[in-house]
Design goal:
It is found in: Cytoplasm. Specifically methylates guanosine-37 in various tRNAs. This is tRNA (guanine-N(1)-)-methyltransferase. The protein is of the alpha/beta class. The protein folds into two domains: about 220 residues, SPOUT methyltransferase, trefoil knot domain (Alpha/beta knot); about 60 residues, Trp Operon Repressor, Chain A, CATH 1.10.1270.20. Helices cover about 30% and strands about 15% of the residues. It is built from nine helices and nine strands. A five-stranded parallel sheet has the order 2-1-6-5-7. The N and C termini lie far apart (about 55 Å). Bound molecules: S-adenosylmethionine.
């Protein structure tokens, strides 16, 4: 996969030079290029913003800078043609980690549910890069979207600042990109850089070969719709608190049942909306429904 990021703060992306993302770079599973938007700014002050049409507070990022930048990123021309690849800050010297040793194959994802016919997109638009525009006004970013992006060859991220990017940039980019306006949550950040780090990390860990043990993400929160239950390691007793006995039993059927129940219990507690949605979609098993009914009974007894 290739990732291009356009930003006025390239220094924000230092974290991509560390840990698992850097390892993906070292393994040539990922190429990352960070572009300073001001390379496309003209004028003495290299300004990238202007006052909002219609009045109001703040500044808006101008299409006259963003347009040429996104043209060059899509075509690999101008400053993009000579940009340097991001390198790992501390090469891992090919040392396998414990989870590299138990890896299993992973064939990627093919779901096309995220294609937007309103933008005139068809599944065969697959050779256009995806332009991800973080914005609080976008559709909520989910694990499912991370899975879909992980199957892409080329992602481009446009980091907004101030009041955001002139909407015509995003509308016009649809000629060269499949555009995704995404929000990482119902709050407002200062700029898009942190949102891009969040999205990039969620996506990169799902690229086949990045996680040594491909099964580990299959058990993560949201992979089956639910959040994951609690996890434990040694010692078996710590400050008077024991690891749940079942996890030390060696009985994997019992452990699987316990984990599923803990997952249901925690999801019901922190995200009851997910339980409702899975129930509406008939995505809960009879055992799941019986356990949830038992939890409801227990709660009634204790109230
Ligand atoms: N005026 C915008 C609004 O009210 O929707 C907020 C702009 S915000 C101060 C500046 C930039 O931060 C946005 O263009 C976007 O790139 C980023 N940003 C802020 N909150 C975000 C969120 N929840 N998800 C994704 N990006 C966000």
């Amino acid at each position: 996969m290739r990732i291009d990021v356009v930003t006025i703060f390239p220094g924000y992306f230092e974290p991509l030079r560390h840990a698992l993302v850097a390892k993906a770079v070292e393994k040539n599973l990922l190429e990352v290029y960070i572009h300073n938007l001001r390379q496309w700014a003209t004028g003495n002050h290299k300004s990238v913003d202007d006052s909002p049409c219609g009045g109001g507070p703040g500044m808006v990022m101008t299409p006259t800078v963003w347009g040429p930048a996104l043209d060059d990123v899509a075509a690999g021309t101008g400053p993009v043609s000579t940009a340097c690849r991001l390198t790992s800050a501390a090469p891992h010297a090919n040392k396998p980690r414990h989870d590299d040793l138990s890896g299993t194959g992973f064939s990627g994802y093919t779901d096309t549910a995220w294609i937007d016919p309103a933008r005139g997109e068809a599944p065969c638009d697959g050779d256009k890069p995806v332009l991800v525009v973080p914005t609080p006004a976008g559709s909520p970013f989910t694990q499912e979207q991370a899975r879909q992006l992980a199957a892409e060859k080329h992602l481009v991220f446009a980091c907004g600042r101030y009041e955001g990017i002139d909407q015509r940039v995003i509308d016009e980019a649809a000629a060269r990109y499949r555009v995704r306006e995404v929000s990482i949550g119902d709050y407002v950040l200062i700029g898009g850089e942190v949102a891009v780090l969040v999205i990039a990390e969620a996506v990169v860990r799902l690229i086949p070969g990045v996680l040594g043990n491909a099964t580990s993400h299959e058990q993560d929160s949201f992979s089956d719709g639910l959040v994951e239950g609690p996890c434990y390691t040694k010692p078996a007793r710590w400050r008077g608190r024991d690891v749940p006995e079942v996890l030390l039993s060696g009985n994997h059927a019992l452990i699987d049942t316990w984990r599923r129940e803990q997952s249901l219990r925690r999801t019901l507690s922190v995200r009851p909306d997910i339980i409702d949605r899975l129930a509406d979609d008939n995505a809960l098993s009879t055992d799941d429904l019986e356990y949830l009914a038992q939890l409801a009974d227990d709660a009634e007894h204790h109230s």
